[in-house]
Amino acid sequence: MNKLRHASLAGAAITVMMLTAACGGGDSSTKDDYGKAPAGSSSKIGGGYGAGGYGSGDSSQTQAKNAPAKEMTVREAPGIGSVVADSAGMTLYRFDKDTAQPPASTCDGDCAKAWPPVPAGDATAASGIGAKVGEVVRADGTKQLTLAGWPVYRYAKDTAPGDAKGQGVGGTWSAFAPDGKKAGAKQEEKDGKKDQEQGGEKAKDGEEQGGKPAAAGVSVADNPALGKILVDGKGRTLYRFAKDSAWPMKFACTGTCLETWKPAEPVEKSAVRGVPEKLITTVTRPDGTEQLAVDCWPVYWFTGDKKPGDTAGQGKQGLWFAVNDQGKKVTSAPAA
């Protein structure tokens, strides 16, 4: 009996070590939780998703979010361009983690609560939409609308016709352009050229503040008050939230919190400077988007920091803290 008990405990310990190692050295510690859910556990199209960020979440709103698209039309979205909307004027989206050839939907479970799949059937395309209308069978057996092969979704936080709040979320969600491609691609190209033109100026700023140009990923900055802290490629201080949890993974900053504290985007390991690469990982949020993590903790940048080097978010509400070059939260100034 004792041998069996010891064997069981040893097995449990090994399992914990393996999971912890996956967080410390893998690309994502939560993809199984929020990625493609096992068959039978998916949210069904047309089924109730509860409030899920849909305003008040009453039954009429829930039904509207899960209704067929009917006649899809082309609308102009400020700053984005032409986008495809359903008959009620709600913007329709595609997800980079899905595939079009063959069509496959990977947004299930909690992801589907934030991004309700649009059911297939009773869908037509008005003039101006060149993308082919089709359907794909989801893991739960329901059929989802596709455009140019891409599964179609609405976004929970779009509460009024014309809203396009889902554009660019997590760097993986885009409104549909009339041809089925990502909307806003031309604007992104313009922005990219602008960033390149400003690159020399940003590098100069990085030299003035830290002695070296800021890396296009994660690097270390010397802060007079806090010591060595982590910053992103734009020199913005990275913070972690005390109400989050590294293990088990927990995201407490959701909803209106994300209007002030923005999830940092994942980076390539080759873009990490001054911090052990094993500490830099990627985690998947409940809405299916990916976020940068340091020592398994999700990290954010603060909208109250107006320029590189600002640390206005430090100690906010006693819950937000900068992160040092060893992946630990900074709670006090360095020793003199």
TrEMBL record:
Keyword terms of this UniProt record: Lipoprotein, Signal
Signal peptide positions (record): 1-21
PROSITE patterns (alphabetical): PROKAR_LIPOPROTEIN (PS51257)
Region (Disordered): 52-72, 161-219
InterPro entries referenced in this protein's UniProt entry, alphabetically: Lipoprotein_repeat, SCO0930-like
Any GO BP: alkane catabolic process
Compositional bias (Basic and acidic residues): 179-210
NCBIfam families with a match to the protein in the record: SCO0930_lipo (NF040526)
Name of the protein described by the UniProt record: SCO0930 family lipoprotein
